[in-house]
From TrEMBL:
Protein name from the UniProt record: alpha-L-fucosidase
MF term (GO), any: alpha-L-fucosidase activity
Cellular compartment(s): Secreted, Extracellular space, Apoplast
Source taxonomy: Eukaryota, Viridiplantae, Streptophyta, Embryophyta, Tracheophyta
Biological source species: Forsythia ovata
Recorded family membership: Belongs to the glycosyl hydrolase 29 family.
Keywords for this protein: Apoplast, Glycoprotein, Glycosidase, Hydrolase, Secreted, Signal
Chain ranges of the Glycoside hydrolase family 29 N-terminal domain: 22-285
């Protein structure tokens, strides 16, 4: 979960000017525990706060500027939003991430390369020294036109980050830990490799968005994509906006989590300093829907066969591994000697099984391998795809199927394909035929 919060919350804007008085930041009921409770109930494991957005206002009392909560009437200038956020997350066992905007529209040092980079490094050091374990730090190249020329010393910043927090993930257009997916719709490419060539990437470069979206099967760097999108139209809270419909959030889920990515969903606190009730309710619905769809795996009602099995029938690499609870380190491996197409087939033990979603997961700890796959139900093709990665979700375009058998055929792979988990699920919220009908009407 992303939390966009700051002076923009109080000025009804998305990008602040940097001229805002800190005194306008005055949440009346700020409660970081409510943010974290909302996230934890939605099954969110990591939360990222905008410690400083483009307007330069700092949500913690930085030693290096007075453009911060120090000048706010909130807590009589003695408050620290970052500290409250970190304390609340720690109490619930939720991981913490921080965003420190490189672009700063307030600070007079911006545009003076040496001075501003020193200021930025000093603030990074504050955030990564003072607030305990930070699991992700978020960098971007966003800045408006008519902005002073500014060179960011990204490599120095990254070195300092790694020195202060050795297990942290660094997010940016170019990694080095996590890459941007190339858009803010929450959609990854239908082909999405976790590998990419970092030498082809640079931060703030608009020409690489398609490359970021799909990754690169020949890439030498492991840089999985993260899909950032807001639950509302804007990133900051606006009174006039409402959360996206459940159907839209599920669409995002299938196109991010279901395409080998991490979903980073922004849920902005309001002027009270709370996540709005409408957003809390929508997140409950979203979590409820995900549980409804994925809690039952109809593949468990099937017997399984495979084309081959590494080490023969008595080995630990049998197809039954795709139905256990370990979705990472146990897997079906076909024989390494067999160069023909590999397949795994499920047959209903009694009657038919009824589903409209197929989930496939690779043993991603051993790399991403599968390049192309085709799925057959009772001998007829119902879906095909390219990459699988950590998780691939196929929502069947034809809607619900009643099946005796399901066959997953791997027709292209880098090395031996390793499948860790397979699921057949019923999504009661997915009505593709209604969609077609309504499009014909319109």
């Amino acid at each position: 979960m992303f939390l966009h919060f700051g002076v923009n919350t109080f000025t009804d804007s998305e990008w602040g000017t940097g001229q805002e008085s800190p005194s306008i930041f005055n949440p009346t009921d700020l409660d970081a525990n409510q943010w974290v409770d909302t996230a934890a109930q939605a099954g969110i494991s990591l939360m990222i706060l905008t410690a400083k957005h483009h307007d330069g206002f700092c949500l913690w009392p930085s030693k290096y500027t007075d453009h911060s909560v120090i000048g706010s009437p909130w807590e009589n200038g003695h408050g620290d939003v970052v500290q409250e956020f970190v304390n609340a997350a720690k109490a619930r066992g939720v991981d913490v991430g921080l965003y420190l905007s490189p672009w700063d529209r307030h600070d007079s040092r911006y545009g003076h390369i040496k001075e501003y980079n020193e200021y930025y490094l000093a603030q990074l050091q504050e955030l990564l020294n003072k607030y305990g374990n930070v699991r992700e730090i978020w960098f971007d190249g966003a800045k408006g036109s008519n902005t002073p020329n500014m060179t960011y010393y990204f490599s120095d910043w990254f070195s300092m980050v790694m020195e202060l927090q050795s297990t942290i993930n660094i997010f940016s257009d170019a990694g080095p830990g996590v890459r941007w997916v190339g858009n803010e719709n929450g959609f990854a490419g239908s082909t999405c490799w976790s590998t990419i060539n970092r030498t082809s990437l640079s931060i703030g470069n608009g020409s690489i968005v398609n490359y970021l979206n799909t990754g690169d099967p020949k890439g030498t760097d492991w840089l999985p994509a993260e899909c950032d999108v807001s639950i509302r139209k804007g990133w900051f809270w606006h009174k006039s906006e409402a959360p996206k419909r459940l159907s839209e959030l599920l669409e995002i889920y299938y196109n991010s989590v279901g395409r080998n990515c991490l979903l980073l969903l922004n849920v902005p606190p309001n002027t009270m300093g709370l996540i709005s009730e409408s957003d809390v309710q929508r997140l409950k619905e979203f979590r409820g829907a995900i549980d409804t769809i994925f809690t039952t795996n109809l593949a468990e009602k099937c017997s399984i066969e495979s084309s081959t099995q590494r080490g023969g029938k008595s080995s630990n690499f049998g197809p039954e591994n795709v139905l256990d609870n370990d979705h990472l380190w146990t897997y079906w491996a076909p024989s390494d000697e067999d160069s023909k197409d590999h397949w795994i087939e499920f047959k209903a033990k009694t009657g038919k099984i009824k589903f409209n979603v197929i989930r496939i997961q690779e043993a991603i700890g051993l790399g991403q391998r599968i390049k192309k796959h085709i799925i057959y139900v009772d001998g007829s093709q119902v879906a095909e795809g390219t990459t699988i990665g950590y998780k691939k979700l196929h929502r069947l375009e034809k809607g619900v199927v009643d099946a005796f058998s399901v066959k997953i055929k791997i027709v292209g792979s880098r090395g031996t394909p390793l499948i860790s988990s397979v699921g057949f699920h019923f999504d009661p919220f997915w009505h593709p035929n209604e969609k077609e009908a309504s499009q014909m009407v319109h």
